[in-house]
Here is the input.
Amino acid sequence: MEISFLRKLQNAAAIWSVFFDKPAGLRFQPGDYAELALAGAGPHGDKRWMSLASAPQEPEIQFTFKVSDRPSAYKKALLGLQPGDKGMISPPMGSFNLPRDAITKLLFIAGGIGITPYRSMLKSIQLNGDHRDVVLIYVANPAEFIFGDILEAAHVPIIQTSESIDFNWLKKRVADIAERVCYFAGPQPFCEKLYAQAQAAGLPNAQLRLDYFEGYNEL
Ligand SMILES: Cc1cc2nc3c(=O)[nH]c(=O)nc-3n(C[C@H](O)[C@H](O)[C@H](O)COP(=O)(O)OP(=O)(O)OC[C@H]3O[C@@H](n4cnc5c(N)ncnc54)[C@H](O)[C@@H]3O)c2cc1C
Here is the structure.
């Protein structure tokens, strides 16, 4: 599906958001991701999987990404987009979504840029006027905590840290963690470590949701 670039916004020194118009037929769930293709963004490929950071109820599509000191041609192409430039978006997909029932207690764990799907979920909860029991753990580099306005408006308990965390750290801060569905989003090593520790601690797979971002090794 073709989408048109609207504008970009700098969230932190190395973090940017890009906004596109939303085609009428585009449907997605908060937490979904899609493949965004940009013409001429080689040589390692002109498309990447990106979480939809916007909520389905919002009028635009938002993607938020981090740019390293040596950005890929793809990231350079994202940053160089001009209003009216076209991209192609695949059908959104994923299973990193909110439970149908609003009573399940949730624990969102974000590593760095892994905050993107939670922006969509928390904004969607807020716009729906739903009441869900959510705790957010947000681990990021000191100057890279983003979406402060959205997170504040969500009115959920948030623990932000730049420490390296493990499952014991989580258990100390979230006493009822065993009663929560736990979501892990962010760099692959960050997510896989915590996911494995949660399994080893006895949390059943049905209670765990994983959304690791390949292409990021660290926060
Ligand atoms: C479900 C999902 C959701 C995601 N959501 C987001 C999101 O919301 N925001 C976001 O920023 N990212 C997201 N990602 C990650 C995204 O798809 C990219 O992988 C990431 O942004 C890195 O892209 P890049 O262009 O900067 O780096 P890339 O060019 O993809 O490089 C990533 C790494 O691979 C190495 N590499 C690249 N090409 C080669 C090659 N040919 N040979 C050897 N090594 C190579 C690079 O050196 C680098 O270490 C998501 C990924 C998934 C799977």
